[in-house]
Amino acid sequence: MDSRERLMRTFRGEEVDRVPISLYEFDGFYDDWIYDYPEYVEILNYAEGKTDKMYFWSPRAEAGEEVLFYGVIDRNRVKRLEWRNGDSNYFRTVIETPRGTITTVRKQIEGVHTSWTIEYLCKDEEDAERVLSLPYKPWRPSVDSFFTLDGRLGGSGIVMGDIPDALCLTVELFGLSRFIRLYVKNKALIFDLLEFFQERIYNYLRHILASGAVTLYRIVGPEYAAPPFFNPSEFDRLVTPYDAELVELLHSYGGLARLHSHGKVKL
Q1: Which of 55, 56, 240, 254 has the fewest C-beta atoms lying within 10 Å of its C-beta?
Q2: For the chain, which domains are there?
Q3: What DSSP line would sit under 83-105, residue for residue?
């Protein structure tokens, strides 16, 4: 039994020869840097043939194409600046919306492959309204890379798509603390943002599924509404209707969903 069959039989609840073993994000998620570090390459080499890969995949924008929140945006509306200070690199993104400018800054320390958002895109409700004013042209990327990766993996595993949910994109506009305070103060605005992002994520996912990229998809974001941050009744408002729609879409094409959450959730 190869890894692909082992994983698919496990997802169907069928008998397998052993429990599948995955290195999780070591397979694909870190490809832009992991091969520069011999200690990580040693782990990957040791795991080859011993683990069952669920290899992360997302399509990339075409050269010269500017994509924001799963929509194509005029390149002239987005400016990106980079600079270095000490051992850290800084990345500023400035977006011109019909209602004004919004800005975000993230920091990455050399040799540390985690980036920190030190200035969130939305500082207040006015910034959120600026996000909502963005024009929407659905992004319809090529999925050729999906089939290339699928062929390369063969029996060693499966391709795993990776998408955020509407809550994930909404929270990450503000940061979790500011999001929670705003949710208490202005729920209507939060739900406007959830609907804004849900339309874009749904249309994107439907496009890539219709193009043949049917597989298991990780959906990231439910944890933001899990305990201890919110009551379970709020989880049912912030997560369930939106993620259920994505899961139903996946199932309608024969795909599978993997909900990602670090919180205590009872389904």
Answers
A1: 254
A2: 3-63+136-260 (3.20.20.210), 74-123 (no CATH)
A3: EEETTEEEEEEEEEETTEEEEEE
